[in-house]
Amino acid sequence: MREIVLDTETTGLDTKNGDRLIEIGGVEIINRIPTGIEFHRFINPERDVPLEAQKVHGISTEFLIGKPLFRDVVRDFLAFIGDDVLVIHNAQFDINFLNHELGLLGEKPLSFDRVVDTLALARRRHPAGPNSLDALCKRYGIDNSQRTKHGAIVDSLLLAEVYVELLGERQATFGLQTVGSSASLGERRNGKRTTAKVRPEPLPSRLTEADIAAHHAFIGKMGVKAIWHRFWGTVSS
To answer: Is the pTM of this model over 0.85?
Structure first.
């Protein structure tokens, strides 16, 4: 099952006040496991970023000069999310901003029927709270030390881990599922596979000659039918 964990950053809190989208980050997960395929774009909002917003996400007006407009990234964004489920923390906020931008371009809005709001999940599971992303990372022992400020791609990666914990599926998924060819041999980012780095020099063996000799002697006492002989060769009985 393919899902997209999504987050956005904006110039403020309300599109009715002229606030705009400035960053989109998305992480593909299949069977609740990240595949390494991500979508990340900064967006020129065609307006200033207030200081109050900069203090939250660290994105300045100057930084966004020259970045693409939303209309320049919308096709790639829609292709990335496809028709799959969107996993978002406090989803109403992000969906409102995305639909505002889509509406300005005459694009079809995103339906809330396809959205999983992890804030709602957290409130049901932990009604006493707190249920911010930072609080949930702390609750579940997820390292969020890189999250010095809000950021769409970092928050999406953290939310992918929180999502599994909220569903109680950490033990069910850890190490027991594969994602086909998505990321089995190398990391995939932005839809492109990169080759895994090869260690320049192999690590030396921790086995000493004495260890190897002792092991040979041990399996020699096990008889010719011992399975170890498939790896070490046969010995006479």
So the answer is: no
